[in-house]
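Progress note, project year one: complex with 2'-monophosphoadenosine-5'-diphosphate.
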Amino acid sequence: MTEPPRTLTGRTRLAGVLGWPVAHSRSPRLHGYWLWKHGIDGAYLPLPVRAQDFDRAVRAVAALCFAGANVTVPHKAAALALADEADSFARRVGAANTLVFGPDGRIVARNTDGYGFIESLRQQAPGWHAAAGPAVVLGAGGASRAILAALSDAGVPTLRLANRTRGRAEAVAHELGGVEVVAWEERMAALEDASLLVNATSLGLEGKVPLDIDIARLPSRATVCDIVYVPLETPLLAAARACGLAAVDGLGMLLHQARPGFASWFGGDPVVDDELRSFVAADLMAAR
Ligand code: ATR
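Model obtained:
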């Protein structure tokens, strides 16, 4: 007889991702893989929720004894605001991507995006060291904030931030502290002594124009990261590899940010390995 189908039971632990829209989210596939891999009686659901319904929806899933949830666009700031407790990283970044519902009904908010970024960087570019030199981050949205805070915590000596709309970069620098704002037009010059370049803009995303930057201005031991993961190999990463630089794709950050949530809700220590990467990457390719 073939293996019986996997079914839910009366004891299935539940979690999910709250977002609007949420159909594009890879989190159900990713958590579903770990649940299967670890043989856990759990389920992770897509939970489409409009902005005006977010608070009610969180309280509803908490009342249904969900173990917790991930939170994605556009709810990350609202998730932090409604929580009873939040970790210091989420407070600094002003957003949460992970909620854990305690048995006492308390809602705890965490932000694991910075953790995911650093873990992915360490896994894909093991030669990178925080103390090696300045980091240049392009873009001033939510992802950029988490990345800058994480790089600062990791001990990067100089953080440079360039964004097309300078005012947004100044606001981020003001809130986080310890970040130098560089004019968007000066981004190439900022690379000269940098050990890390991070694209945290949406440039390079499929259907968008590529990021205009001259990778050859980076020192030969620099690392280049992209948060864009559709396509997995962005023009920026292809250019970095062609110059012999270490390149870190955006899929790693997505996979690693999910680990703390999974461990809190379902237990275990989920790992990001080639099998998981291929499983999620196959879904990204299929959607194109
Ligand atoms: P998120 O919060 O997920 O990071 P976002 O707020 O939409 O997303 O941020 C997208 C980033 O890409 C922004 O830094 C944006 O720059 P602006 O603040 O000037 O809008 C950047 N971006 C998008 N299109 C761009 C373009 N054509 N040239 C330069 N930067 C661009």
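Residues 139-144, 163-165, 168, 201-203 surround 2'-monophosphoadenosine-5'-diphosphate (CB under 6 Å).
The mean pLDDT is 96.
No further modelling is planned for this target in the current period.
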